[in-house]
Amino acid sequence: MKNLVVLKKFQIMVVLVVAGLIIGSCNNPKKTMQLAKVYVANEDGGSISVINLQDSTKNTEISISDSSGMMFMAHNVQVAPDGKSVWVTAIPMDSTATNQLIVIDPNTNSIKKRIELGKDLHLAHVVLDNKSEYAYATANETNQIFQVDAKTYKITQKFELGKGYLPHGFRHQNGKLYVANMDAKSMSIITISDGTITDIPLGGVAVQVATTQDEKFIFASLYDTKEVVKYDIKNAQITRIKLPNDAQGPIQLYATPDSKLLYVADQGETMGRPVSNKVFVIDITSNKVIKTITVGNKAHGVVISKDGKTVYVTNSGDNTVSVIEVATQKVINTIAVGKKPNGISYLSETGGME
Description:
signal, Host-pathogen_enzymatic-act, YNCE-like_beta-prop, YNCE-like beta-propeller domain-containing protein, 4-stranded antiparallel β-sheet, disordered N terminus, 5-stranded antiparallel β-sheet
């Protein structure tokens, strides 16, 4: 009888220990990172690199060539905010072929749809609305913005900017598109519901924009003047932020989730300038550059993790991605990717970053 009591106590202890292990594994913070990935558009490589953030040595390369073997340049990539799809702007190497939006399934990392938008467009960037209902793509050569239904993959609307705009990077926020125009040296604000377009002169070659999650500001990079413009949405006011003297030309930029810092990739190379390997950190409140971080050559694309702890920068000249730790403002890892990495986007278990 005594042995039976001891046995029952032992069984109860085993059950409690197993239950504790199960609960502990559910509360393990590493679990929330199991699906964390970074997608990189390799322009000259004609592919998308998928970086596994749990082990950056175990990465995937997705070719975006079609069944005939035609190569497409992957200029930009964007994870949908709901995390259920990844969108790529694809420009064919054959100039007579059609520009495409390519949709990737993040669960299988395989192409599930090719959406033909037209010829001679030179598709630049792609974004989605916050509900992941529509995707938008800038057509650089035709001065248009395409709206595509994210479920039916049909073109539902086109926004015409007019001749001489050369739209490039853009972002969506609160039912509006904020578009950086290179030739017009302006930012177009498109109200999606009624198609109204307001043009904001910026006085420089606008390459890309960034939004803050507190929905107060829009930032635009001006390549030729080596500036970042801060646009106050509520007051429609512009503040110009001069970059350091050694800046060679900013491209992409991204704000931390707490809306306190802005990271600016300084590329250089065009307009007869040398290649840059710098990322500038701007304090959004003071409008000042507070840190310069050395990364790889031709720093181009930038995105920040959902928790705001790490920054990922594509180095087009080195075929790498630099990983910056926000707490220390230092590069903590350099990851090899495909040829001429350009756009970059982040995916976590709870979705993508808009």
